[in-house]
Amino acid sequence: MIASTISKAGRLIDTRAEAGGPPPRTLARFIRWALRGAGPVIALGAVVSVSAGLTEVAAMYLLGLIVDAAGEPGPLLAHWPLFLGAAILLLVIRPALFGGLALTQTVMIGPNVFNLVMTRLYRWTINQSVSFFDNDFAGRLAQKKVQAANALTETVVESVNALTLGLATVLGTMALLGAVNLWLVLILGVWFVLYLWFLKRHLPTIRTRSAERAGARAMVSGQVVDTLSNIKTVKLFAGRQHEDGKTLGALDELRLKALLFGEATTSFRLGLICIAGLLPVALIGAAVALRGSVTPGDIAAIGGAALRLAQMTGWISFSIMVISGHLGEVEDGMSTLSVAHDLTDAPDARTLNVTDGEIRFDDVTFTYGGEAGGLEGVDLTVKPGEKLAIIGASGAGKSTLVALLMRLYDTEKGRVLIDGQDIARVTQDSLRRQIGMVTQEMSMFNRSAMDNIRYGRPDATEAEVIAAARRAEAHDFILTLKDHKGREGYAAHLGERGVKLSGGQRQRIALARAILKDAPILVLDEATSALDSEVEASIQSALDHVMEGKTVLAIAHRLSTISGMDRIIVLDHGRIAEEGTHDALLAAQGLYARYWERQSGGFIGADNDQTEAAE
Fold it and tell me: How many C-beta atoms lie closer than 10 Å to residue 55's C-beta?
């Protein structure tokens, strides 16, 4: 009953609510950003915690009254209201409050705060540009999100549990001591100042070393995930020892950081044990010294409160140490995850409206920040419904052209327009919904074949998915699939990045996805490179049908696959060197003709040593 009530209270947090703005780069503001909307539930937990703390003081106060009552002449039953009050406090109120405190942490605060923080970090990260993910380990980023969300959740729980309860106990004890003798309050105050000084001296070191340990832990995760994601390459190149060296090196660094963290926390805890031991000695000694002005019950209450406070101080101090460590982990995650988006929708961005499908590159330059590859001063217009083939040696700028069309990067100079609309002035989602794409390295989700194809159009029916698979020549092999859990056919999961499929099978799934999406603009980046000649021929008619009425950009190294396109452009060192039809370019005896004459097995020779970052 109580758990059900508190669980309902926990749902007062809308864990999917937007945070409102980007994550700040300072710790306190970042925490406020992450926890925005959770305030009422955290406050409710704090109220329960304060109430529980005050019962500790009330119990000591009642203990003193009982001792004094026991020392008075007459029957103890004359004081039955006092005994009844103590029984109710100890047997009903105190257990109920501490039980409620435990439930607020495990049912109301913990799961909801974690979901809230994780959702916000996930949303912010997934909206980063492609270049953000190009420069980091996927496993490291995932580890930092989970680590930061978990650390912030534990910080809230520990704050509500220990700090709030402890503060209420300290203040209540001060009131109790003040009622007995103000000198006792002064003694407690001096001890508390010493306690705070000790915390201030040691906690920054713990926080710093915790952040270093968290960074090392995330690096281990990134290294392990990177190795496992490329396990076939590791096996094929007998790279186990090389990967061992990298992973064990990361683990050695983690061990070093963990040892330094352990050294700091051990020193902290030993010091606290000594400081905590001073309190009962000082207070009980003072109470005995003041015995002429205090009653035996006062001494009992003071002694009980001092011992309980000393015991609680150790617990609170441990919690503060844990919180400081967690804040270090949050800070480590914040430094990576709160990086500002470098590619965003304009404030007045509109939805892209594709009426004809004309694409125009207007004096476009993009050089990956001065690195090799890219485009320089490209002017290109693709007419509505035109089938444009793009060829060139590696590093010529082919995939860069497509990446800029998809707005995976922003141009350094010039504009890209679709039907006269600058793609930098429309929303990214509306742009990409209007473009279907099949690449030579189309990765799959570790989900069912049905889900992978349906990714092209999430609202598609099962019949529409199967129809798209048939047109992509994927239906027959999908029916033969079976995963380790016994799921078969379209329900079978494909493994991480589609590892259970051959290259040709992955490409046919990707083709089915593009067919299902049926976008007005279609990009084919080596769309049939992984298919054998027989399968390629069988789906070529399907591709021809899919391309009807669409504006198509096709990148290919096999010239045989593009010779029938409406127009061909040849890129060389980021510029358009030639353009025209297949026959016209052969007659011109330029680059295209040399590629045609030189190709072996139908592929363009890679006579350019440049490598292109996007390819």
Answer: 21
